[in-house]
Structures are given as C-alpha cells and as structure tokens.
Amino acid sequence: MINEKNKIITFFIIVLLILSINNQNDLKQSYPTENIDGSFLGKVQDEFHTLLLGTREMFGESNDVNRVGSFSRTVVKSLSPIGVLYMNRNMGGEHHITGPNYHDYAGYSYLERNFSSYEDILYDPNIQNYRFGILLIRNFLFLLILVSISYFLYKDGYIISSLFFFSSSLLNQSYAAAKNLIYTDFTNLLILYVFFLIYLITKIPSNIKNYLGILLVVALISNGLSNILYVPVILTLIKINKKTELFRYFIFFVLIFYLFNINELKDPINYLDNQLWNFYHYWTGHYLIDPIGIPMLKKIIYFSFPWIGSISLLVFIKFIKLEYKSLFLLLSLTQLAIIISASQLRHFEERQFLGLLISGIFLGTLFINSIENTFLSKVTINKYFYFSLIFIFSIYPLFSSNNNNDRITNEVIRTACDNIAVINDDRNELDIKKADNFDIKITETVEAPAYFKSLEETISPYDCLIIKENIESKNIATFTAPKFYKLGFRSADYYLFYK
C-alpha cells in the first residue's frame, strides 16, 4: 500500500516528467536557422560568449573576450558530455567513410574541427544537436528545482504559496525569453532558484548552508559583475557564529572564485575591462539609443508587470514571518535598486530584468506564505483542487498546436524550391505539392561505402530536401545532405535543405 507521502511525491514526479516533455517539444520548435527573426538571431549571436567560447576553452584555447562572465561557460563545460552524447546519438556517417578522421570523427573531435563560429549553430545539424542536448538537461535541472520548491511548500502546508510559485515561475515573461537560449540570464535564474530552495529547507545544517551560500555568491559574481546587486540576498543564507570561522570561509571563497575564473584571472585587467565595458554599452545604447527616465521606466513596467508590483508589498512587512523579514526587505530593496538604475539605461534588453521578475515572484511567495501562516492556518484548502490546477498548468502546453505544414510551405517558397524530395514522412503529415515522397531505410545489411554513395545519387536530382527526423534519417540529414545542401529551416521533426 502506497502511503500518502509517497503518493504526493509520485504526483510531483509525474508533473516533472510532463514539464520535461513540454520543454523538449518547445526546444524542438526553436532551432535557430537562417530564417529566424532578427531579434532572436541577435540573441543567438550572443551565444558566441557562452556556448562557443565555453566549448573552445575545453580544447585549451585562451579567451580574451570576457564581456560575459565565466560561470555560464562553466555550465556549458559541465553539461557538454550530455550535449556530445545527444549529438553522437543523432549523428550520421560510419567510420570507414569519414576518413581521414576514422576514429575521431564524432564527439569533442567533431566540435573542435567544426564549431568555430556562431553561424555553425545556424547551419550545422550536429552542432544544433549538441546545443539541444545542453539546453535539454539545463532546462530539466531548472524544472527539477522548480518542482522541488513547490513540493516543499506543499509539504509544509503552504498550498497557496506552492501554487503561486509554480504558476508564476512558468508564466513569467523572463523564463519564456530565456529558456531557448544559452546565455547568462538563464544561468542567473538557476542560481537564484537554487538559493530559494536552500533557503526554504530549514533542515540543512548551518555550516553546509554557509558553504552553499558562498558557492552561489561566487557563481553570481562570476556570471557578471552586475550581479553583485544580488549578493546581499544570497548572503541571507550565511550565519557565522564565531569570528574564527571567517578565515575558513574566506579561503573557501577565494579558492572557488579562482577555480571558476581560472582563465579570466590570467589577465585580470582584461577581464575587468571587458566586464566594465558592459556598463558603458548599456549606458550609451546598442545601435538604437533609447530615452532615459520615464520612457525607459514605462518599458520596464510594461515588461515586468505584474511582478514589478511586488515591491508595494513592503508596506505589509509587519505581517511577514520573522525568519523571512530580512530576505523580504532585501528583495524589495533589490527590486527598487534595479528599477532606479535601469531607468537610466540607453538600451532596453528584456533579459536584463530577469532579476526584477524573479525577486517579485520570491516576494509574492514569502508574502502569501506568511499570510497562510498567520490568517489562513485554520482554513482547509481542498488538496485535489490544488493537484488539478498544478496538473492543468503542466499539461496545457501539450495541447498547443504548431502547424509545421504551413511553416515548411513558407520555407519552400522562400528558398525557391522547385524539384523537392520529402523523405521518411511515413504518415504523410506534410502536404507539399509536386514533391516526390519516399522512404530511405536500411532493411538489410549493407556495406557503408556503397550505401552512402547511393544516398548521394538518390538526393542529387533534387533542389530541396524535406527530411523527417528519425533514426533512419540521420545519415542523410546530418552527414550526406550538409555536404551538398544548405540547411534553411529546422523545426520539430523536420529539416529543410536547399541548394
């Protein structure tokens, strides 16, 4: 017989699995290719600082472009085995026909040879798969933290707080803007959510919390000097009772900071100069120069609403639980500092305001938590109503439709395709007029050189290839087609290549 606690844990595990499926589906709709919107393209270009440089650093290359802090590159390096595993699983070819790279064609060797520009993200299906694998596991870690926080709030009896935190985290604009990109904003999101999880778990010994707090402080600073604004918030984890402990924690701080920034500290002046350049950049504009003051404030409010309104909860601080008051005050002051300083910027960038939204969610959660504790402790809330709402929030994106047929048809027109092959579209999901629709599958043992030569001969008469992604298609989509065609579009389970 499964007890009540195990039933609840099982429910949250199911929710995590559903959210993970949503995450995978969403990422498959957002492959960056040459046709993407200009604003999104600019953000993909910024992955030069994180995905590209983080990968190149693993091959021993020095990096003197440190406008983006090191921690996002550290995350890339840490998760790269997952990215490489996913890339290798979906990579075509066979070692007898990949010469001269017989035994080092795939994996990190492939990245070292072929990943040298952000444009490789747009045109190389294997680099896209490497990037996809990293995004998949990184976003899963965030969802795991999110579900864990929601579970602990529910377990402690704060049902409304749990529901608010869960829904707000998934519905806020900052998460939506950051989840499909590898950049510092999502890394900050991870750090702040790990902080909130540690903060809410009271059973963690104080010395462990101290070390974790220092680790998070270093991670934040290493992700960008502007993050120093959040350091006081993280420091609420740290409780030092003896002065003799200060030296030990200071040594730990210095050691971790050095490990996270070992490449940057080889030339500390260059590192500092690059970091301070960011301030100049946002104080002067980014091609477009925005007016400061009220016009900028309006943009901030419009983007950050309603989470920006959480600062008004400061007037109710007397209702906040005693153990939460210092964090509540610091979060409010952090929001105020962001609003005042950001109103003087000459460039509005949505991802710069992630901290504003997240601190608003934390403030709302702490406020509702305190109200539940003080005024609603005797009010019984139907747990099945709670489970139903959480389940609806989780499963709703599964029913959103994405019309791949229309998108691919538009791409056929854009690339002026005439003679088209649709390959391995078993269910005939696409309705492409005047296209040859056929399958290419290995149904019996073949010799690799002859097989790959036949693939080239099969596709050569066509101007465009539309390939359904599956295990049988990888030899064409990731090995043969890129030799003769340009990747024009990729979404969900389809590639479009054109000559």
Compile the SSE list and pairings:
Blueprint (H helix, E strand, L loop, with lengths): L3 H25 L9 H8 L5 H7 L13 H19 L17 H8 L4 H5 L1 H31 L3 H13 L1 H6 L5 H17 L5 H17 L8 H4 L9 H17 L7 H17 L9 H11 L20 H18 L11 H21 L8 H13 L8 H11 L5 E4 L11 E4 L9 H12 L4 E5 L5 H11 L1 E6 L2 E5 L1
Description:
This protein is mainly alpha-helical. Among the domains are: 169-381, no CATH class; 405-499, no CATH class. Helix content is 58%, strand content 5%. The mean pLDDT is 87.
SS field, number of helical segments: 21
The topology string of helices and strands comes to: HHHHHHHHHHHHHHHHHHHEEHEHEE
Average pLDDT, all residues: 87
Strand content: under 5%
Q: What spatial form do the alpha-carbon principal axes imply?
A: globular
> What value does the Rg take, in angstroms?
25 Å
Alpha carbon gap, first and last residue: 62 Å
For the largest beta-sheet, the strand count, sense and barrel status come to: 5 strands, mixed
Q: In which order are the strands of the major sheet placed?
A: 2-1-3-5-4
For the secondary structure, the number of strands is 5
Given helix and strand content, the structural type is mainly alpha
What helical percentage do the residues reach? 55-70%
| Low-confidence segments | none
